[in-house]
Design a protein that fits this description.
One of its GO terms (biological process) is methylation. By secondary structure, the chain is an alpha/beta fold. Helix content is 29%, strand content 19%.
Length: 262
Amino acid sequence: MSQLLNTTASQHPEHQWLNSALGRYLRQEEQVLYDQAVVDLFGFNALQIGCLQMDLLRNSRIAHRYSSTEYANVAEFPHLYCCDDFLPIADASLDLLILPHRLEFSERPHQTLREAERVMMPEGHLLISGFNPLSLWGMALFLRNLLHSNDAAAKSFPWTGSFIGLGRLKDWLALLGFEVVSVQMCCHIPPFEQESWHRRFGFMGKLGAKWLSAIGGVYFIVAKKRVVGMTPLKPSWKAQPVTSPLVVRPTQRKPSQRERAE
């Protein structure tokens, strides 16, 4: 059980950082990707875990949309308080699951993914966003760890997380039976804390998205849960229409002996 369950949102470093200039930049970039992805995904139940300052399901057309967090949140009102590595959700009950920056801050990221696989319906979709270690954001993490290796107080969110490489995460998903449908990158501007520097380096956003997409600060994955041996049934629109058994039809019968004689 995570120790964050008794921490209020106003005290939690994630909540504070997402309200900073850099956090607002990340929210703006990621919101666009989530909005584009969820609009074409269908089902009955969807869940967003964490980062509740972003309504990542706002464009979803799924009827039942839920949110959860692992710490006491006074600013937003989630439907569920729980840890993401042990979800109180029935097997195969979610059609869409969203994990925004959960794996790099999870105490057991493998277990978090296993729980995601357990609660998802076959052919359901898993959306993940995470910090890319092979980027300027990853370099900032490396330098902070190098310069403040013995000073935990000098490191703040999100530099306290363990950034997971995209290739490594793809391997984990493949082992659990997920097929990676698409990967996109965002946040190409260096992680400056001051908004004025974001405006000065705004050109890097357009330049990076076009020419250096692979080194974006955040990756966004859309994956689908595949089940071995399962063949989805599709309607056969070319099949003959079903007719009522009450319709009178001409029948065939064998000719009688008299009819044969004639």
